[in-house]
Amino acid sequence: MSSKPSTSRAGNAEVKVKKGPSPLVKAYLILYNAVQVVGWSYMLYQLFAFYTIDKQEKLSLWEYLKWTVMIFQNLAVLEIFHAASGIVPSNVVITTFQVFSRVMVVCGVVWATPTGQVSPGLPLALLAWCITEIIRYGYYALSLLNAVPHLLVWFRYTTFIVLYPIGVTGELLCFYWAQSYVRETKLWSVEMPNPWNFTFSYFYFLWIVMLGYIPIFPHLYLHMFAQRKKILGGGGNKKKQ
User: Fold this and answer.
1) Nearest to 117 by CA among 131, 105, 103, 102
2) Residue 35, Cβ neighbours under 10 Å: how many?
3) What is the pLDDT of residues 21-36, one digit of tens each?
4) Which of 49-53, 149-153, 164-168, 173-177 has the lowest mean pLDDT?
5) Active site annotation includes 157
């Protein structure tokens, strides 16, 4: 038998691979990224307004913008499903760690502990997150429209050099400030004896997460440098990763 049918099927498969997301999925992704751009832009405005325009004295920074942080950071959990379902070409493991670490800081540390809410790391983390996410989501949204300006590409693969270490420093400071409260109150810990014959220390869990930054942060940071070299380094394929 001729091999033409199988060749045709292979060609069709190749067309499907290059076709990209369906119009409905594409519209959803554009909307998702646009909403995130608006949300993080508003959060950045709140961050500067807290220290300049409003000059809050009665409210803490967390009390001032906690609902904006909670909504738009937790909305990023959808990105794990985006990667797992294949509608975006992101690495599921890297995406899960990045989203989990942020949600952990917001919900498991700052929201859960009064000490985390006054950590000097909170404004550092928020500043780095806001600028990073405005650039990142804007880049993704415009990529779907095939309208990314070169300046935005440069920002996407350059600003991380400074913002990533600042963000990680802020996150770790939030963890460190929270751990004393968790140790004293035994927050979310389970001690023996109990009906389940199970013990869990949230205090030690926080330290495990903090120590996990040691091997993971350099890997992610170097990965971004590799991406930067691929996209901005000249030559080779400059398609969006």
Assistant:
1) 105
2) 14
3) 899 999 999 999 999 9
4) 49-53
5) no
